[in-house]
Amino acid sequence: MKRLVTLDSFAAIGNQVSDPGAIVIRKDEKRFSNFKELVEYAKTHELTTTATGVAGDDHLVTLKLNKELGTQFRAIQFEGTADSRTAFLGGHVDVLITSVGEVYTLNDNGQVNVVAVTARKRSPFMEKVPTVQDATSKTVISASTRGLVAPKGIAPETLATLREAMKTAVNDPEYQAKMKSLGIGADYMDGPEYMTVLKSDVTDIKGLSDLIGW
Prior knowledge:
The chain is α+β, with helices and mostly antiparallel strands. Helices cover 42% and strands 25% of the residues. It folds into 2 domains: 65 residues, no CATH class; 118 residues, D-Maltodextrin-Binding Protein, domain 2 (3-Layer(aba) Sandwich), CATH 3.40.190.10. The strands form 2 sheets. Strands 1, 4, 5, 6 and 7 form a 5-stranded antiparallel sheet that branches. Strands 2-3 form a two-stranded parallel sheet.
């Protein structure tokens, strides 16, 4: 929140993928079977969720759900997705908060039940899974975007070359096919559009700073 290096320290090259959040329950869960039932239960019962870092995308999903829907989710921090997924599958945590790319294979194999995604529209990898807004009319948006930036002050011609190269790479059919096989959506954004998304993310985090404890 008080770091000297900010987004203004960089020139955005572009974004390559966007991986929306996924809210997951176990197949043998008896207390709720879909997202609406999960939300209603969590309004009167504290449930634990997974997270992999304070103010990370999965942690922010938990905080946003509590703020928008009045749920009582409590995030448990893990060192990484593998650890959080193992704890969830072992029954030590109630709800897995992760990304579509991390869980779509388990969902396709029938090992888990993805009950909602945190996107504006349904994921092409899980077309039957509703968005949070589909299920509740409340908007909760969160995605792990992955892009490239350069130092502020980079020569304009160099920045233009890097941006064009990234656009070509992300739109390459082979790259697109590889991302699809991984369950991750290739999502090219040019530099200015990507910077707008990053600034929106910062605004989101600052808006939840009181809930994070900052």
